[in-house]
Hints:
This protein is α+β, with helices and mostly antiparallel strands.
Amino acid sequence: MVGAKDIExxxxxxxxxxxxxxxxxxxxxxxxxxxxxxxxxxFIITHPINGQPATAANGSTIGFELGSCEAVYAWHQAxxxxxxxxxxxxxxxxxxxxxxxxxxxxxxxxxxxxxxxxG
Length: 119
């Protein structure tokens, strides 16, 4: 679950990046929060329940494993195109063979997509 300052903007961003992942379901729950489900995992966008403004967590990163390096690059591009920003560096393949990309969503939450290309 991530907090968002603007739910509609966040939904457009997450719709775009999740289009590069196999989802079992997506929609809006009984509390009017957009959600995305893959197996038993659920990802929900919400305003903070304490009524305070949404802020990005300091030191937190939410990671998603994708099915190919191409999907990682497309995920990153979709995020940047839909209101997010690149975090750290452009997508790349590390020495250990892991293809990685980092984004910040429109609220500033840090996200990572990865795919292990070898070993």
